[in-house]
């Protein structure tokens, strides 16, 4: 390959600057590396690179980089060679690489041995290779009889071995230590929340709003708040507001295994408030059934299934505070279960009409209900006060 240059118009550094700015034309075509190296040396000599100032050297280096097509690092390396030896020469080397002692046939042989013996550990596989060569006289294992245990594992990862045999392990689940897997046991006391999240759907790649649904297991007191995203920035303030809105102290917090609740940030908040943190058990779909039923009968009933953009979360929260939550807790009747033991000794739950009450009435009907409220909160004396909330 040959390099042809026509840079006679460039005589000094001012011409070089004009070329870099695109106001001077230079005709050139690049055809070979050796000639390109030779042109770089000639240019350094012609402009007396060693006698230039630092600023002028920078201009010349930019010129060499632009015309030669080399990177700035390569040009700096070639200039350093010129300063040291006065020459710019190629130092291309062809490296043959390391010679492979263990061939593809050895890898295939090891794969066959592992298949027969169920992929033993490295030490066992090495001993088997030694016995095949020394005891049984199989010459194919001569090279493998000298292999080290560590390099045996390298051979197992080689391309020849992997094409012959692949070993797959089952997915090993990682157990989260956050929360306890069990069903809460409120023992008739309010303050044990069942929490779930309802998503209002996506549309054209735009995320919809998320509703946080918290329901007390005993009284069915319910708080609904909406967030733009299920992230720490939005979830933690909403959970704190839910706990502050409910009229009784929170004793327990139960959620399914969604990452919006099973994380260290929520665990830290609950631990700070000394609230029991539990989560649903595997293959027990009814552990969070109360929150799931409220998702359908309350949230989907009033907000539907259509997409609501996340930016409307603040407006929805105003609606929840002023209208939705007061209506749910003070005016909407709920069915409450009454346990019944059948002839076979099984506990059955019945929902008699006589036990149908609003969450407020249920809370007020509990034994010693006044002692179950937060300090400074008392039961409303009239229905008018009930409609305004606590």
Write the layout of secondary structure elements.
Layout: E1 4-6, H1 13-20, E2 27-29, H2 33-46, H3 54-68, H4 72-85, H5 104-117, H6 122-134, H7 149-156, H8 159-164, E3 180-181, E4 192-199, E5 210-216, E6 222-227, H9 232-245, E7 252-255, H10 264-272, E8 276-279, H11 289-303, H12 313-330, E9 338-341, E10 347-350, H13 359-365, H14 383-387
Parallel strand pairs: 3-8, 4-7, 7-8
Antiparallel strand pairs: 1-2, 4-5, 5-6, 9-10
Short description:
By secondary structure, the protein is α/β, with parallel strands linked by helices.
Structural summary, described in words:
- By secondary structure, the protein is of the alpha/beta class.
- It has three domains: 4-85, no CATH class; 104-164, no CATH class; 180-350, Nucleotidyltransferase, domain 5.
- 41% of the residues lie in helices and 12% in strands.
- It has 14 helices and ten strands.
- It has helices at 13-20, 33-46, 54-68, 72-85, 104-117, 122-134, 149-156, 159-164, 232-245, 264-272, 289-303, 313-330, 359-365, 383-387; strands at 4-6, 27-29, 180-181, 192-199, 210-216, 222-227, 252-255, 276-279, 338-341, 347-350.
- A six-stranded mixed beta sheet has the order 3-8-7-4-5-6, sandwiched between helices.
- Strand 7, helix 10 (264-272) and strand 8 (276-279) form a beta-alpha-beta unit.
- Helix 1 (13-20) packs across helix 3 (54-68).
- It is flat, with a radius of gyration of 39 Å.
- 24% of the residues are buried.
- Mean pLDDT is 86; it is low at 381-385.
């Amino acid at each position: 390959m040959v390099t042809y240059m026509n840079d006679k118009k460039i005589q000094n550094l001012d011409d070089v600057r004009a070329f870099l700015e695109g106001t001077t034309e230079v005709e050139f075509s690049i055809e070979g590396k050796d000639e390109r190296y030779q042109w770089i040396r000639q240019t350094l000599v012609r402009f007396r690179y060693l006698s230039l100032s630092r600023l002028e050297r920078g201009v010349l280096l930019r010129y060499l980089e632009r015309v030669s097509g080399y990177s700035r690092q390569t040009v700096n390396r070639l200039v350093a060679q010129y300063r040291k030896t006065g020459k710019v020469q190629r130092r291309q080397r062809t490296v043959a690489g390391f010679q492979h002692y263990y061939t593809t046939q050895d890898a295939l042989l090891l794969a066959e041995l592992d298949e027969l013996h169920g992929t033993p550990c490295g030490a066992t596989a090495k001993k088997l290779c030694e016995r095949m060569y020394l005891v049984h006289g199989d010459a194919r294992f001569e090279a493998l009889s000298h292999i080290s245990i560590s390099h045996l594992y390298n051979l197992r990862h080689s391309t020849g071995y992997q094409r012959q045999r692949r070993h797959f392990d089952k997915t090993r689940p990682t157990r989260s230590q956050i929360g306890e897997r069990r069903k809460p046991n409120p023992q008739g006391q309010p303050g044990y929340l069942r929490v779930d999240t309802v998503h209002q759907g996506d549309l054209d790649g735009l995320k919809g709003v998320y509703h946080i649904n918290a329901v007390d297991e005993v009284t069915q007191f319910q708080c609904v708040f909406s967030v733009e995203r299920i992230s720490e920035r939005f979830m933690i303030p909403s959970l704190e507001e839910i706990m502050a809105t409910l009229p009784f102290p929170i004793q327990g917090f139960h959620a399914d295994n969604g990452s919006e609740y099973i994380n260290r940030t929520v665990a830290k908040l609950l631990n700070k408030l000394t609230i029991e943190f539990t989560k649903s058990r595997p293959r027990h779909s009814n552990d969070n059934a109360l929150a799931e039923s409220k998702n359908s009968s309350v949230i989907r009933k009033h907000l539907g299934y259509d997409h609501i953009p996340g930016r409307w979360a603040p407006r929805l929260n105003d609606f929840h505070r002023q209208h939705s939550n007061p209506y749910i807790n003070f005016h909407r009747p709920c069915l409450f279960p009454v346990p019944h033991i059948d002839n076979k000794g099984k506990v059955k739950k019945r929902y008699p009409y006589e036990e149908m009450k609003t969450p407020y009435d249920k809370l007020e009907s509990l034994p010693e209900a006044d002692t179950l409220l937060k300090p400074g909160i008392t039961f409303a004396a009239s229905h008018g006060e009930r409609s305004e909330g606590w």
